[in-house]
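lol so apparently i was supposed to do this last week
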Amino acid sequence: MSLLQIDQLSVRFGATMALDSLSLAIAAGETLALVGESGSGKSTAALAIAGLLSHQATVTGTIRFDGQALTDWRGVRQGGIAMVFQDAMSALNPVHRIGAQVVEALRLPRAEQRVAAARFLDQVGLPQPERLVDAYPHELSGGMRQRVGIAIAVAQNPRLLIADEPTTALDVTIQAQILALLRDLKARLGLSLLLVTHDLGVVAETADRVAVLYAGCLMELAPAAALFTSPHHPYTQGLLEARPPFGTQAPMLAELVEIPGQLPRLDPPPAGCRFAARCDRADQRCRAEQPVLRPIADTLVACHHA
Amino acid sequence: MPEPLLRLQGVKKSYPSPAGPVQAVRGVDLTLEAGERLALVGESGCGKSSLARLILRLADVDAGEIWFEGVNIIQMSDRALRPFRPRLQMVFQDPVAALNPRRTVFQAIEDPLRVHQRPDRAATVARLLAEVGLEAGLGQRYPHELSGGQKQRVGLARALALDPALLIADEPVSALDVSVRAQVINLLGAACRNRGLSLLFIGHDLAVVRHLADRIAVMHLGEIVELAPRARFWTGAAHPYAQALLAAVPATTPAEAAAKTPFVLQGDLPSAVAPPAGCSFHTRCPHAEPRCRTIPPPIVQLAADHWARCHLLTPGAGTPSLGSGGPAP
Ligand SMILES: Nc1ncnc2c1ncn2[C@@H]1O[C@H](COP(=O)(O)OP(=O)(O)OP(=O)(O)O)[C@@H](O)[C@H]1O
Ligand code: SF4
Ligand code: SF4
Ligand SMILES: [Mg+2]
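anyway here it is w/ magnesium ion bound
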């Protein structure tokens, strides 16, 4: 059985359709990458799962965690699910010491807090954890703050860790450290990881399976290896082809392959396939009828012509 | 030898901060030829943007010289500098902040032409809109009615309006959605090719840098630690820091990720207020030796057009393998 099961999850903010009928599952111990650009709905999905949606959101559909339906979309942290954010600084309280923030959710007796906090800081690879418990967020570098953010999540003893663009604000050298830490924690603690990102490199480094979102819709859901070698959806193909080649053997191109056009507005979203305005395979049917997910090999694809 | 388009010599700049002066640029020598595309790479805070601001004279150097088109622009008054301003233009990371919300696209592109009293402005704006791939009708729109990619196109049209010789682009695609990045990268490349423009490209995405740049300068804590042409850099970066940056680039496929030797640089970027003595990279370098902690490494010329600052390198020896402590070559 899946640890997390999402069925027909839709989220609206007023006239904006942020997420349209998302269905997917995450198995125990699995890393699922949720890939998308701005407005694709990836953070909305992550926040819905974590129970952190704002009050403006209108939600339909179901999310089951460990067989139990989650019913509160906002304000309530779901037990067993913890979240790491892109901007560690804004996720931390600037006037509270690091140690207190790490164990805040645990409601430990005062005497035990320091030791517990230091243990979690140590688990995320921070040096001199006994001294760090007394530090304030501004005294740390961006990479260290992100480790503290991960320590706070780990302290909640989650079975599912949601990381929303956890390395986007960091340098590549620090990104490599944080990705290594997430992989390590996942293996050590047997976590499932939902990694939200726009970066296909991060996906290649971490994911077992990949869900590609575009303009609120799940376009392709595939094992990571399959997605990179034989993408089926025109949007996924476009994203992979538009990357500048990299590596000692990679070709030098005169021009990059472009995806023409721009992201559609979602208030309201276009009829038919959300990608139709940018797709070179689009026809009448694409513009009129929204494609539904169907299986191709071990992949699910939402496209009339894949 | 003819004077290059741009030549920096011993350029230094520090900024006051509560913790003491931040040494943002610590003695940079660099040249850029006409039509050349040079990339400046390095971690955040290493001084890339500061260097760009100094070249544009948006800030004044503490020491050193900046020669542009054969003239040292450092001591020039704003008035004397005026004829040079159009020749040096900039594209910013954040296209929103770079545009005035109350000016239409047409006005935004026309403004620099008006300031410098250029004739035939309407025709020039129309030509620029076409060059950056925007429909003429878009001229009447305001910035908030544009997508991120469109705003960056307007920013580029504005920068090209005065027919510059040098374009400085500071992370011009980092804030854009992935599906529109290739469009803007292609536009930049085409503008350089078609206009014979020189480009100083500041970027942290090494794949983009590899695609765009003829030469690569690696900056660490306010210093250039390696300078190499593309033909040598991507296969034979010599400085341990350059190698670490290359090793940190995520794999392009899961198969590549599984095959590569993991290498993670330990520790954080040191403070620019108190850069480490000796080699500024020694606190993180997997090959550091005792002398690295005290003696600043010399510039080692590895080939006529390739140098790096590191004690372990030998002149003319090409790119060494730095042994098992470092990333896979
Ligand atoms: N106007 C300023 N006042 C004070 N400090 C400054 C100023 N501009 C830059 N600095 C400092 O100088 C150092 C170099 O900054 P700079 O912005 O040039 O780095 P960068 O390489 O462009 O970084 P990034 O990749 O984050 O854009 C940093 O420590 C920065 O905080
Ligand atoms: S459904 Fe049509 S428009 Fe949409 S991706 Fe497939 S071919 Fe393109
Ligand atoms: S000089 Fe020493 S510390 Fe600096 S890069 Fe070379 S080996 Fe590393
Ligand atoms: Mg900068």
